[in-house]
Structure formats: C-alpha cells, structure tokens
Specification:
Elements (H helix, E strand, L loop, with lengths): L4 H4 L6 H15 L3 H22 L6 E2 L2 E2 H16 L2 H13 L3 H6 L5 H19 L2 H8 L11 H22 L6 H14 L12 H7 L3 H14 L5 H28 L1
Antiparallel strand pairs: 1-2
Helix pairs in contact: 2-7, 3-4, 3-8, 4-7, 4-8, 4-9, 4-12, 5-9, 7-9, 7-13, 9-12, 9-13, 12-13
C-alpha cells in the first residue's frame, strides 16, 4: 500500500518547502519593490522629521537625550510596524481571497504551517531592512554612531516577525477587507502612540506605564534606543518578550489560516 502525501512528508517545516515559498516571494517582490519600499520608509521618515524638528524646536531634551535623537531611535519601531503588520494583513487577504495564490501554493508539497512561516519570515526580513531607514536618517542629522546599532536589523527582524504573524492572523479571521479598519484604529494606532516613540512612558499614569510593558512595540523602541545609547540589564527580558510574542502569534496565525483555507 502506497503512503499518503502527508505520511510521506519528512517532518514539520521542511526546508525545501520554506525555500520554495521564499523564492517565490523574492521573485514576486522584484516587480513592486519600489512602491513597497516607498510606503514602508517614507511615512516613518516624515514622522521623524516632523516630530523631531517640530517638537524639537520646543523641547530640547527628553529622557536625557536630544529630542531628535529620541524620536530618531523610536521611529524604527514605526517603520517596522508599517512594513510588517500592514503588508501582512492586506497582502495575505488579497492572496487567498482574490488572487487564490495560496490555493496554488498548497497544491504543491507545502502545508499551511510552512506557508505561514515562510511568509512571516519574508516580511520580517523586509522589516529588518526598512526599520533601519529612520536610524540612518537620524545619523545624518547628528545621532552619534555606536557599535550597538549593528543589532538594530536583528531587533527589527524579531519585532517584524511577530507583527507579520499578527497581520496574517487578522487576515485569517477577517471576513472582509473592511474589517481591517477596526484593527488599525482600535489596536495598531493606540499601540503605536504609546510605544514610547514620541514621549517617554514615564510621563503617563502608572496604569498606562504598566500596560506599556505589554506592548511589543515599546520593547522594540527601548531595545533600539539602548542599542544606540547603551544596553541595559533588562534588555534580555525585552528580547524574551518579543520572542514569546512572536512564537505565540505565529501559532495563532497558523491556526487562523488553516481554518480559513479549509473553509
């Protein structure tokens, strides 16, 4: 009796399957990289310039840092969010709902777990690159270079993986693309504003400071800021929080997409 396709598989997350999906994404990305790069990097840079030099003319220092440097390191998280959660939400929904791309991919020896993982890794890789753009702009405007900044692409990648999985999860549960408005307005915008990007959380009420410690974007902001100005002892815990966030949302994304693609 011949083995079924599932029993013939070598195991979970097979490298050829992941590589196949990643290669497809890279080839496809070559056709629209200009618009994707523009949308993922220009808006965070505008935030940096507007807040850094706008409020910077009124507030010289925040938390012991020049305000332009404070915002410049913080907007890395903004760039990561814009280049991970948003493309994952809209891109995933379009691929399975309108283009039927996922149906074609799953017809090959690729399962939903490998598909979601490869998609999230690809989006996280892009976020790791795009997240460095605000930092480079800040360097051009006087942010002192530091060896710790070499860790920023890794921090952005780790954060981007979690938010990419978040976007895939939202797309998996959404019934229509209009539902994304609720997520953007009620979830992403508040988390973006209270991440410590434009002002320190220490100025907020105590309950808001505690809630901020559960915000993955805040951990990204603090890690990038400490990479530029000196790491702190608690940064290991922040890395751990990002890993836990990424792994938990990754499994939820797999569940959401498995449920959606089976329906």
């Amino acid at each position: 009796m011949s083995a079924s396709p599932e029993s013939a598989r070598l195991g979970r997350l097979e490298r050829p399957a992941l590589a196949g999906v990643l290669v497809r994404e890279v080839v496809n990305f070559s056709s629209y990289w200009r618009s994707a790069t523009f949308s993922s990097t220009v808006e965070p840079t505008i935030y940096l310039l507007a807040f850094g030099f706008g409020f910077g003319s009124l507030v010289s220092k925040v938390g012991g840092y020049d305000y332009v440097q404070f915002v410049g390191t913080g907007t890395v998280a903004t760039a990561v969010l814009f280049s991970s959660a948003f493309p994952a939400m809209f891109g995933t929904f379009v691929k399975y709902q309108f283009q039927r791309t996922y149906d074609a991919i799953l017809a090959a020896p690729v399962d939903t777990e490998e598909l979601v993982t490869a998609e999230a890794l690809w989006i996280a890789t892009r976020a790791g690159v795009y997240g460095c753009v605000p930092l480079l702009v800040a360097l051009a405007f006087g942010l002192p270079a530091a060896w710790g900044m070499l860790c920023v692409p890794l921090i952005a990648f780790l954060t981007g993986f979690g938010w990419a999985c978040f976007g895939i999860t939202v797309a998996g549960f959404a019934k229509s693309i209009e539902n994304f408005s609720y997520i953007v307005s009620a979830v992403l915008t508040p988390l973006f504003l209270v991440a410590g990007t434009f002002f320190p959380l220490s100025k907020l009420p105590r309950w808001a400071q505690i809630a901020g410690e559960f915000n993955p974007l805040h951990h990204c902001v603090e890690l990038v800021r400490h990479a530029a100005f000196g790491f702190h002892a608690w940064d290991v815990a922040r890395v751990g929080a990002l890993i836990v966030f990424g792994l938990a949302i990754w499994r939820l994304a797999i569940y959401a997409m498995t449920r959606k693609l089976i329906d």
